[in-house]
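[job 0412] stage=complex_fold ligand=copper (II) ion status=START
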Amino acid sequence: MVAAGGVLLALGAGAAQADPRPWQLNMPQGVTTWSGEAYFLNQVGLWVCTVIGVLVFGAMFIAMFRFRKSRGAVAEKWAHNTTVEVIWTTIPVIILATLAWMSTGGLVTFADTTGSQMTVKVTGYQWKWRYDYVDYQGKAIQNVGFVSKLDAQSDKTRQLHSGMDPYAVQVDGEHTYLLNVDRQLVLPTNTKIRFVITAGDVIHSWWVPDFGWKMDAIPGIVNSAWANIVKPGVYRGQCAELCGQDHGFMPIVVKAVSPAEFQTWLATQEKAAPATAAAPAAPPTALAVARQ
Ligand SMILES: [Cu+2]
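[job 0412] stage=complex_fold status=DONE, emitting structure tokens
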């Protein structure tokens, strides 16, 4: 399954334009080693539904048009057929069991955070995200963490909604109206990254579609997920759990860079750590993260 998903992912990787594209109808194929799995499972489910839909509606329309009273059709009198009952019970059971078996396989690989090379703690607040770099390549990271919130320019556009053209807010030719943050979450590619996700006030949900998953951020509970990004780039997301007035204004921006570039970035951050540590720390409700 993973292999098949990987093939689909590889086929989609050649696309020149990033998701979402104009008139994109399907879900994104994503940029992580796992996201192809979610895409593949979705395709399987979609095609099973499509085939069943065509067969059922096809049979229904044939019955309605070919065997109508005005064409001389006479109703059969029988009311029960055990063979038919057995067939239309067995086939759906086989289909559902197969789908359940496949999606359980997908969930098992999704939940398996063992062997991760890095841990990032994500904390949701009304209405911003805090990122703490916990460890990298088996080494604990001290005091590298920051709050990431809606970029001032993006926010200004919202406040000046009367006059400003939202599409004028662009970075590298990309429309970033209400999608930019002041500090991006920098992550290395080709690294199994474990995310431990929680919240400091109400329930949020950390969602970057290109990763192929979203995870609830719940106060008092630490959820975990993982991603291994295969392609450098900027990936955008949103809070995906209605969390109050500014729920729609707490975007997520992930910048994936090569491991070498990440090392350099991390070293700079660690050097600046004392200043970071002096900044307002996470509220006392934030949980200490138990390292694996
Ligand atoms: Cu939220």
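Residues 1-16, 283-292 have pLDDT under 50 and may be disordered.
[job 0412] exit 0
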